[in-house]
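ok new one. same drill as before - structure tokens go in, u give me an amino acid for every spot. 261 of them this time. try not to just spam alanines like last time pls lmao
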């Protein structure tokens, strides 16, 4: 059986009445059905009480990107600038979900906002507007974002740490080109995280959990946008999918052992 892959949702207003909906981009659904090789399961922003029940049924977890920013109260940061989108319901769900997944060893791939959540959940902090900081480049969504080729095209290179998963997936290359669609970024790295890739301005672009029990990787870019044409993006999702299948097989073996006892 294909592994069940949870996809974190945001709460967004839809329709003429602006009714709150739990939503995730179709790009995540398609990538799970594609190179990940799993069954996508959309996870509502239902709050911390449901985390144990959700995680017990999953074989992997993808933390999605979003236009909303992690609420700075979670890392004792200054208030967001007026008009900055926030999603308190998502924060209340994903932060405890991350901590539980890391503790249990459930495979986890954190993308863009998801990587920022991973850092905050484990005790790190964020810069809110990287483009306003001295010596940093603008990592945010281009103003002409209605043009897909501009919005999701390669924006800058990232330097890869030797010997890491990304370094191996890139065939040993020292750097790869990525898209860039974020305002927030890692300020103080969480104690359990290790940086694995950096933008030219020093912004941390990928992280892993030190001595993790399972697959845990965060990337600041969006590999779900170009996996059909970018070999590193596709290889990343295939590696995550393999980890999810191994987790599912392990859980199945554990069930058989318990049944035989």
């Amino acid at each position: 059986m294909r592994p069940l892959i949870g996809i974190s949702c945001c709460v967004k207003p839809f329709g003429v009445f602006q009714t709150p909906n739990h939503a995730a981009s179709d790009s995540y659904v398609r990538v799970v059905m594609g190179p990940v090789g799993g069954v996508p399961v959309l996870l509502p922003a239902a709050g911390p009480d449901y985390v144990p029940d959700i995680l017990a049924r999953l074989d992997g977890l993808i933390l999605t990107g979003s236009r909303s920013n992690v609420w700075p109260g979670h890392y004792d940061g200054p208030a967001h600038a007026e008009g900055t989108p926030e999603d308190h319901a998502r924060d209340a769900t994903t932060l405890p979900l991350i901590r539980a997944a890391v503790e249990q060893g459930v495979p986890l791939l954190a993308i863009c906002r998801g990587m920022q959540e991973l850092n905050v959940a484990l005790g790190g902090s964020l810069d809110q507007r990287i483009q306003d900081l001295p010596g940093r480049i603008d990592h945010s969504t281009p103003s002409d974002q209605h043009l897909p080729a501009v919005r999701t095209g390669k924006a800058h290179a990232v330097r890869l740490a030797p010997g890491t998963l990304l370094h191996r997936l890139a065939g040993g290359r020292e750097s790869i080109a990525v898209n860039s669609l974020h305002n927030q970024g890692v300020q103080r790295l969480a104690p359990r995280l290790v940086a694995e890739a950096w933008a030219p301005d020093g912004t941390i672009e990928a992280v892993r959990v030190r001595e993790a029990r399972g697959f845990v990787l965060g990337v600041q870019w969006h590999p779900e946008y170009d996996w059909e044409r970018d070999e590193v993006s596709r290889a990343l999702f295939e590696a995550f999918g393999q980890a999810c299948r191994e987790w599912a097989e392990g859980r199945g073996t554990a069930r058989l052992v318990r049944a035989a006892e």
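Residues 4-128+183-260 form a domain with the Rossmann fold fold (CATH 3.40.50.880). and btw Residues 102 and 212 are 7 Å apart (CA to CA).
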